[in-house]
TrEMBL record:
Residue ranges of every copy of the Catalase core domain listed in the record: 9-393
Chain positions recorded as heme binding sites: Y339
GO cellular component entries: cytoplasm
Source superkingdom: Bacteria
Catalytic reaction equation(s): 2 H2O2 = O2 + 2 H2O
Annotated keywords: Heme, Hydrogen peroxide, Iron, Metal-binding, Oxidoreductase, Peroxidase
Name assigned to this protein: Catalase
Record-level GO BP terms: hydrogen peroxide catabolic process; response to hydrogen peroxide
Record-stated family: Belongs to the catalase family.
Organism listed in the record: Paenibacillus whitsoniae
Any one GO MF annotation of this record: catalase activity
Enzyme Commission number(s): 1.11.1.6
List of catalytic residues: H56, N129
Classification of source organism: Bacteria, Bacillati, Bacillota, Bacilli, Bacillales
Region (Disordered): 1-27, 366-405
Length: 483
């Protein structure tokens, strides 16, 4: 070995004398269990894959920054929005939703759009999608919905019967189904799609005054989409097309950017708006609540190691900072628990202490121990609270703002059940060419469904959104329009 090369070592730092040949009992004898370097290599290899994400398993990520361009401190005291020109480092992970980690990038699927802001008051995660709405609006339905997107337990094949049966029995899905089956169902790249926080959140300013808010990330590259035929070709020829595109763009200095905007709603409007503002299957009209620019997101650095950064990155909508709080959105409320719990299972109880997830600000907790603790574990400092030894103490000024609640504890649905107006409005906004492609896509997706009653039930939803919408799909499937 040349003198300028570092010595190969074991995981515990001992030099390795031979990395090409196992220790054996004689030249042809059995391998010796005393070859601890061999055992370590094989044992580590067996454990090199953490369980893949149940959803959003296939993805790509990049580092960048958020820069404030407009002063919105009248609405939030969150430090990342503190002053025009302030930059906050961040990490973004884009992903598909339903497929496994080895699936193709160019499938028809929503795209995850998760942003981790490393603010000076702790991390803030905005865990959204490339669509402003979702298929369901209550977290209690989420496991069932995702089951329909996965493989049949007997055939291990994707199951159109389950997909369309669930959607046809969940009319709140119609808005998102229409977006998914439209041209925007297959983005050209991760760079050429918008991002959305999707949920409603609460912003609180320094005086304690609150508003409701929705996030929009508008791509500066322009929205571009793939035709189904090109997407299928790319899936066969380069299933990692989006991953490769993002990496190569950043590597060549073509840094993708998004203008970050918000919609702001006064708290009292939530009681009178024509749609429930906490229902994630609905949007707020931009005529009612215009987009307000707040900043700009730029991605300018690729990960050095995919596993350490992209695969081990963990995001949760419950990772909040002072000035940003949840809303009563039933889907969001479930995600506040489910995402962090998934990370504790998949990566470990100390996932937040890994370099990619560790806040850039100081962390002072009484959390101790657990698998794979990567830091000093608190050393010999006080490990409980309250204490009289000067340990970290609560700061009452950072308590969340109060929210009025009332009513009986019960399993209650949303009051508003108009699942058709916004889907119909979207259909009517499309050009004739876009409508034709939408109908063709839906017809092709529904043809494999074996039971006509499922198809007819779903056609009824399309018809309620717009009679032409339902009629064209019924004609494409050779079925009657429900009366």
């Amino acid at each position: 070995m040349s003198s300028d090369r570092k010595k190969l070592t074991t995981g515990w730092g001992a030099p390795v004398g031979d990395n090409q040949n196992s220790q054996t009992a004689g030249a042809r004898g059995p391998t010796l269990i005393q070859d601890v370097h061999l055992l370590e290599k094989l044992a580590h290899f067996n454990r090199e894959r953490v369980p893949e994400r149940v959803v959003h398993a296939k993805g790509a990520g990049a580092h960048g920054y958020f820069e404030v361009t407009q002063d919105l401190t009248a609405y939030t005291k969150a430090s990342l929005f503190a002053e025009v020109g302030k930059r906050t480092p961040l990490f973004v992970r884009f992903s598909t939703v339903a497929g496994e980690s080895g699936s193709a990038d160019t499938v028809r699927d929503p795209r995850g759009f998760a942003v981790k802001f490393y603010t000076d008051e702790g991390n803030y995660d905005l865990v959204g999608n490339n669509t402003p709405v979702f298929f369901i609006r209550d977290a209690i339905k989420f496991p069932d919905f995702i089951h329909t997107q996965k493989r049949h337990p007997q055939t291990h094949l994707k199951n159109p019967n389950a997909i369309w049966d669930f959607w046809s029995l969940s009319p709140e899905s119609l808005h998102q189904v229409t977006i998914l089956m439209s041209d925007r169902g297959i983005p050209a790249t991760y760079r050429h799609m918008h991002g959305f926080g999707s949920h409603t959140f609460k912003w609180v300013n320094a005086e304690g005054k609150a508003v409701w808010v929705k996030y929009h990330f508008k791509t500066e590259q322009g929205v571009q989409n793939l035709s189904p035929s090109l997407a299928a070709q790319l899936a066969a020829e380069n299933p990692d097309y989006h991953t490769e595109d993002l990496f190569n763009a950043i590597e060549s200095g073509d840094f993708p950017a998004w203008k970050v905007c918000v919609q702001i709603m006064p708290l009292e409007d939530a009681n009178t708006y024509r749609f429930d503002p906490f229902d994630v299957t609905k949007v707020w009209s931009q005529k009612d609540y215009p987009l307000i620019e707040v900043g700009r997101m730029v991605l300018d650095r690729n990960p050095d190691n995919y596993f350490a950064e992209v695969e081990q990155a963990t995001f949760s909508p419950g990772t909040l900072v002072p000035g940003i709080e949840p809303s009563p959105d039933k889907m969001l409320q479930g995600r506040l628990f489910a995402y962090s719990d998934a990370h504790r299972y998949r990566v470990g109880a100390n996932h937040h202490a890994l370099p990619i997830n560790r806040p850039h600000s100081e962390v002072n907790t009484y959390q101790r121990d657990g698998q794979m603790r990567p830091d000093s574990n608190g050393g010999g400092s006080v490990y409980y609270e309250p204490n009289s030894f000067g340990g970290p103490a609560e700061s009452p000024a950072d308590k969340p703002a109060p929210l009025d609640v009332t009513g009986q504890a019960d399993s209650v649905a949303y009051d508003h059940n108009d699942h058709y107006t916004q889907a119909g409005d979207l259909y009517r906004l499309l050009s004739e060419e876009e409508r034709e492609r939408l109908v063709q896509t839906i017809v092709a997706a529904m043809k494999p469904v074996e039971r006509d009653e499922i198809k007819i039930r779903q056609i009824g939803h399309f018809y309620k959104a717009d009679p032409e919408y339902g009629t064209r799909i019924a004609e494409g499937l050779g079925l009657p329009v429900p009366q």
